[in-house]
Request: fold
Amino acid sequence: MKLPIFLDNHSTNPMDPRVLETMLPYFVEKFGNAASRNHAFGWAAEEAVENARKQIAKLIKADPKEIVFTSGGTESDNLAIKGVLEMYGEKGTHIITSSTEHRAVLDTVKALEGKGKATVTYLPVDKFGMVNPEDVRNAITEKTILISVMLANNEIGTINPVKEIGKIAKEKGVLFHCDATQAVGKIPVDVQEMGIDLMAFTAHKLYGPKGIGALYVRKKNPRVRIIAQMDGGGHERGMRSGTLPVPLIVGFGKACELCEQEMVQETARLIAMRDRLEASIMKALEETYLNGHPTSRLPGNLNISFAYVEGESLLMGMKDIALSSGSACTSATLEPSYVLRALGVGTELAHSSIRFGLGRFNTDDEIDYTIKKVIEIVTKLREMSPLYEMAKEGVDLKSVQWAAH
Ligand SMILES: Cc1ncc(COP(=O)(O)O)c(C=O)c1O
Reply:
């Protein structure tokens, strides 16, 4: 086993070596521009792009013509939301989203709201982080043009009831955009069955290269149209101009193919490792709380709050394991995660949370090491914590009158 251990697979994934192998010829030998229609270099590049488009479409049960290449999840979310608003803005400017979306969605709708271009409803989530489809239904007005709800959350892994939301969207004739960046390649995704009209996803979260993503844009029932956010050569059927990065696209395609072929076995392996990690930690340490849905959750996700322990201190004590804490360092202050706060997790417990993100290349030995290390460091930090000592002595911390400074 090699240190450090990478257990931050929601932030990105290491690229699969089999993906790199398929990409290599497209840097030097087969370097053509896929838009060069009149020579062999261009034809070879175009063929490779179209082959990748098929591999990607197959993974999400789409038609290859419904795939628009972008630079990643962030750009796809921007293109979907801004593109729909510009296209259908005459009908209305109301957008419905949820409070636990990634910032690629939240900051996009907030920017539009700030400029007075859209009005936005931010739906709450339940204590597991799930959106209630009935809340979506109740929020729809005749001015609603878009619903944007994520498939799986990046912090707590909760999987939303997207199929039910898609059904409501169809019934009401409102377009449905889904940020599936954390879900595609990890759980089965079927844009038909889920009633999705637009969907953002990215290669670097499914063991492909960074810098390439896609937006699924439905072609029929209904035919969705969006206004391009980048003017130029009219690539990607006018929806996203710019010379296609052929090696990245080839890698994205191969990565999707591997996910499709190996998802069943990989999921079983990840769930076994994740459940062992969860059970061992929670059995050994009292006052640990699972954040997110107990079952409707991404296979590789485990988010736990360790009462009386600062998440950041825990990370500092385990520098040989790459993890993420539930606090975001914004300017000089440490803000507790807005996702955890939306579930109703208190500030203290939000600050004490750690996200474990397991992936394809993690091993049982790494999980054993992590279990041992987490138990050791949490125990040590609690031993040093006066609050923990008081709580153990039966003092009700809420009743303590703290000295004013
Ligand atoms: C849910 C979600 N949406 C969007 C993004 C942004 O994707 P990208 O890094 O490809 O821009 C991420 C990445 O962290 C994500 O987790």
